[in-house]
Design the sequence.
């Protein structure tokens, strides 16, 4: 048999029928929904007189609209938000799917709780009407974001019609320098190859630096494959993956576990497998990254200045628009740029290890006067685990708000937001115009860079505080 | 879904890179669990001067009388990036758009277009610039044609071929429902699931209820 890439193995294991012209009917193993886009899929399915083929493999959470204030209920700060919550609950119950409701102790962001509960497994296909579903590829699954109509299709038929993507391998080689994280890897990749660099590809992240990442960091790396315009990103499962999953509620148990691990060990790209494209990045040269503009590709090393248009990889018009929006000028230093707010959270960077690293920067220090600082754990389980080690106290003592879990202020839905033209350093994934609030200026960075910046009151290099 | 074959209409240029789905339909404009009632919120952040109001920004392309009734949108690179929300496509469709022409599309947005009767047509940025230039002379005199049968975009003397995968093209041309199409493979799906259950049972055998967590929220 000719050598295969991991993606080709995942594809062929799920190919129900070859539809010709590069299309395949692909079996879907896990479907996740949330109250923002899943509700309309369930409702539309019912209105069409169709039912969910296998409810036992469909899960739903309340993460997008639900408030993250401690005493939350179905009422939300987002106008009209309550209807999304109540209608999702009713539709989930009617469909017989598993729901992690507003006050469920296991509630959280879909891409945080799915790995946490062992719902996503190596070798599974996972879909969710959410663009960051690629996050879950970190466990060695084929996981990708879809629209609501495709969610209906998956719910009704247990399959999706998928155009087979091209394959790309991105190898991060070398040992990560101190203070450089998975977030910096993904920002560096997108900065170098552009926000459409991954268009049409399923991307396998590999190399020494990736093997060395723990599972939570791998989730961060895969999370932003969508900002690279890729169909998905994923990582071959290994011993760390199996150890992470062992004993989790929805992971196989007993002899089934042994059988599964044996199967999962085959989920690697064969030695001579050929990729349609290969990128190699030497991580030893990387530093923490921060964005200056309104696209994730507008990322630079934290010590760099706002690039000239000729070095920005952006058209003159888009460049001028981005600088005007961000209130910056070419050649301006990003270090020392005054900020109004700091945000730690989102499906990118809200897991226990993220909070531990940020807390290590914050411990015993205070957020600069005038900076609004917020931490939103990715799930209620993360929140409890953090509280058990006293991290909540570190955040609170430093002057951070400590919230209940959800997507929160990663995006603006009409409720809570940062102010007009406020400058926010954020551990999230998108710095688009008005993403976090009307005219809010977002600088994407790792949680430790957010923490260091919150203390300094301006964009700051976390390595100086970590020494 | 309505079939789409040959469309000739005013084309509105909105040629910016990375127009994301939150710019197309801001989250705050998604007010109910519905696929309809979204066209007023289309491009709300750019189309209106005040957030939450409906005071038209005269600078915005869709507010210019010359482009009234446009059903083709000329876009920039990575059109429809960001959130997977299909509401972006539902809003475009409800407003009247039936085709978007751009140098590249975000993958989820592209699929959502095909599922809802909007043709996502890929042309080189230079060709789109030429079209925009021609259209700007007089938008109603120089209408743009998207011909899905011939796979060609035309405007005055300009004629540019495009390629589209046959599945997307057929779905648009015939107005097909993807779920109906896939249900034709029902027997094969059942057979596949039985085999998968035998070979990789853990994909199917899940605990019937979530874990019990002993905490009060």
Sequence:
């Amino acid at each position: 048999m000719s050598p295969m890439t991991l993606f080709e193995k995942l594809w062929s294991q799920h190919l129900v029928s070859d539809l010709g012209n590069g299309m395949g009917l692909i079996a879907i193993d896990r479907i996740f929904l949330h109250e923002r886009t899943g509700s309309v899929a369930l409702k539309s399915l019912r209105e069409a007189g169709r039912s969910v083929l296998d409810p036992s493999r469909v899960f739903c959470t309340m993460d997008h609209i639900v408030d993250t204030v401690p005493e939350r209920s179905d009422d939300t700060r987002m106008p009209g938000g309550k209807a999304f919550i109540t209608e999702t609950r009713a539709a989930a119950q009617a469909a017989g799917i598993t729901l992690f409701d507003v006050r469920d102790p296991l509630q959280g962001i879909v891409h945080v709780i799915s790995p946490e509960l062992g719902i996503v497994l190596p070798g599974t296909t996972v879909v969710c009407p959410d663009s960051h579903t690629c996050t879950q590829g970190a466990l060695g699954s084929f996981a990708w974001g879809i629209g609501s109509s495709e969610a209906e299709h998956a719910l009704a038929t247990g399959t999706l019609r998928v155009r087979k993507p091209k394959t790309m391998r991105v190898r991060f080689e070398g040992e990560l320098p101190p203070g450089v994280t998975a977030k910096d890897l993904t920002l560096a990749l997108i900065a170098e190859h552009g926000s459409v660099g991954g268009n049409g590809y399923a991307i396998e992240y590999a190399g020494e630096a990736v093997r060395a990442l723990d599972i939570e960091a791998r989730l961060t790396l895969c999370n932003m494959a969508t900002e690279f315009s890729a169909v998905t990103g994923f990582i071959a499962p290994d011993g760390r993956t199996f150890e992470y999953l062992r004993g989790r509620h929805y992971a196989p148990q007993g002899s089934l576990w042994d059988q599964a691990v044996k199967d999962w060990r085959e989920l690697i790209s064969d030695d001579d497998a050929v990729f349609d494209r290969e990128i190699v990045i030497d991580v030893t040269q990387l530093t923490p990254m921060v964005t200056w503009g309104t696209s994730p590709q507008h990322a630079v090393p934290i010590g760099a200045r706002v690039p000239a248009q000729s070095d920005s990889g952006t058209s003159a018009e888009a460049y001028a628009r981005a600088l005007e929006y961000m209130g910056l000028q070419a050649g301006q230093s990003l270090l020392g740029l005054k900020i109004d707010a700091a945000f730690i959270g989102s499906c990118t960077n809200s897991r226990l290890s993220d909070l531990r690293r940020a807390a290590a920067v914050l411990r015993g220090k205070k957020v600069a006067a005038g900076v609004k600082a917020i931490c939103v754990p990715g799930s209620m389980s993360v929140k409890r685990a953090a509280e058990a080690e006293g991290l909540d106290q570190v955040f609170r003592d430093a002057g951070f708000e400590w919230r209940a879990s959800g997507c929160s202020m990663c995006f603006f839905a009409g409720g809570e937001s940062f102010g007009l033209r406020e400058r926010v350093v954020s551990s999230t994934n998108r710095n688009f115009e008005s993403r976090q609030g009307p005219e809010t200026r977002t600088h994407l960075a790792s949680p430790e860079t957010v923490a260091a910046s919150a203390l300094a009151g301006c964009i700051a290099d976390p390595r100086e505080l970590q020494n | 879904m309505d079939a789409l074959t040959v469309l000739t209409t005013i084309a509105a240029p909105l040629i910016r890179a990375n127009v994301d789905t939150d710019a197309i339909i801001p989250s705050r404009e998604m007010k109910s669990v519905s696929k309809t009632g979204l066209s007023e919120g289309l491009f709300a952040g750019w189309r209106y001067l005040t957030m939450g109001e409906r005071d038209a920004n005269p600078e915005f392309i869709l507010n210019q009388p010359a482009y009234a009734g446009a059903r083709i949108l000329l876009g920039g690179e990575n059109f429809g990036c960001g959130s997977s929300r299909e509401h972006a496509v539902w809003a475009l469709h409800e407003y009247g758009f039936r085709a978007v022409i751009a140098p590249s599309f975000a993958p989820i947005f592209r699929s959502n277009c095909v599922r809802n009767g909007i043709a996502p047509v890929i042309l080189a940025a230079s060709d789109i610039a030429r079209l925009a230039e021609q259209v700007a002379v007089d938008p109603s005199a120089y209408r743009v044609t998207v011909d899905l049968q011939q796979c060609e975009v035309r405007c005055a003397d300009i004629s540019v071929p495009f390629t589209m995968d046959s599945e997307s093209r057929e779905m648009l041309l015939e107005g097909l429902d993807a779920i109906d199409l896939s249900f034709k493979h029902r027997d094969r799906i059942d057979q596949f699931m039985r085999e998968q259950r035998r070979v990789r049972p853990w994909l199917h055998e899940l605990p019937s209820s979530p874990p019990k967590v002993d905490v009060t929220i």
Observations:
- Chain A touches chain B through 94 residues (CB under 8 Å).
- The longest strand of chain A covers residues 166-173.
- The two ends of chain A are 52 Å apart (CA to CA).
